[in-house]
Amino acid sequence: MFREKIVMVDLKGQYERIKEEIDDAISSVISSTSFINGPIVTEFTQNLQRFTGTGYVVPCANGTDALQIALMALGLERGDHVLVPAFTYVASAEVIALLGLTPVMVDVDPETFNISIDSLKASCTEKTKAIIPVHLYGHSCDMEPILEFAKQRGLYVIEDNAQALGADYIFSDGRVCKCGTMGDVGTTSFFPSKNLGCYGDGGAMFTNNLELAQKLKMIANHGQSVKYTHSIVGCNSRLDSIQAAILNVKLKYLDQYTASRRKAANYYSCRLSSINEIVLPAEKEYTRAVYHQYTIRVCDGSRNELKEYLAQKGIPTMVYYPIPLDMQEAFKGVAYCNVSLENSRKLSEQVLSLPMHTELSESVQEYIVESIIEFYGRN
Fold it and tell me: For residue 136, what is the domain's CATH number?
């Protein structure tokens, strides 16, 4: 057994590298007693705005709230259809249903795991009002055809960027944009395991529309822009000052973190490329992925066996996600689908995510890779 403990995400190791800065930032907030909407929230928001190149950033309590608030701000009506991939985390579709809208399940591309433009187009009806493309595993959706189609049909685009903060999208004319900044609203999560994670919950919304930014901010603050004057029905969703202080420190290192993840992904891809039974993640020419997850496809039906074999050798793995959303009990009688979801079904049976984080050493990766090679060499 490998002596070093292997983890999916090494938050402790990452913290120890910047411990003094983090501790000072937290201490500063506690000393100021500005725990909610303090100056550090504004500072972090401005820094995040510069990092992403977006017009406006509106912080909130978590990534799910960000999605819900975004939909609330667009003025959709009960029963309106919102297209969402069937192969993703539940939050992307959950907020649609919570607001009385109809989640319409769309299939994904088997190479990128992201929403299929062909399936998206086939799913669109006169009831369709919005699209939620999810930049899954840190790889950008192919946004140019999505944005073109949305413009043709008059649809809103809400980017779920919880897993791809910092990822680039490259348009055909060479223009480069950060994921989350191209649609009407982009959303992200600062859950601790995310590429930019805090030490609790947190989220944010991005937009280039001033009027929409003001509405997002109002909704997140009980529907008010002036204290005790409530113009619309909103909710209570705030990024607290301690989390903002932590994020403000970690944001300085996000490019470095991305470089570490890309290096680890390249190592996996180089070492595992000769195994015919698995398919490696594909990074398309239109993106620079940030590898929130490194997810392989096990195509010979041995996914669960491989997972168990690696677990016995002290190597954790995860299946993101084992059940497509259309098959979840919560969406029966709620969601709608008029296309084949064959790829989503297949991926749920094949995907396996290997350990991926900023502190991943080559020696750990070597052990993981050799264990996978050993598994397939037994047959």
Answer: 3.40.640.10
CB atoms within 10 A of CB 228: 6
State whether 192 and 323 are in the same domain: no
User: Tokens in use for 328?
Assistant: 């979840």
Neighbours of 366 (CB within 10 A): 13
Phi, psi of 234 (to 5 degrees): -125, -150
As a whole number of angstroms, the longest Cα–Cα distance in the chain is 70
Please name the helix (run of DSSP H) or strand (run of DSSP E) that holds residue 204, with its range, or none: strand 203-207
pLDDT digits (tens, 9 = 90+) for 243-270: 999 999 999 999 999 999 999 999 999 9
Cα 127 to Cα 12, 32, 155: the distances in Å are 47, 50, 10
Q: Which residues contact 299 (CB under 8 A, 6 or more apart)?
A: 277, 278, 279, 350
pTM confidence score: 0.97
101-114 burial, b for 16+ CB within 10 Å, e for fewer? bbbbbbbbbbebbb
In 10 A of CB 160, how many CB atoms?
Answer: 31
- In which domain, by residue range, is 69 found? 12-251
Q: What is the dihedral of CA 228, 229, 230, 234, to 10 degrees?
A: -50
pLDDT in tens, 295-335: 999 999 999 999 999 999 999 999 999 999 999 999 999 99
Question: Cα angle at 70 between 61 and 236, to 5 degrees?
Answer: 35
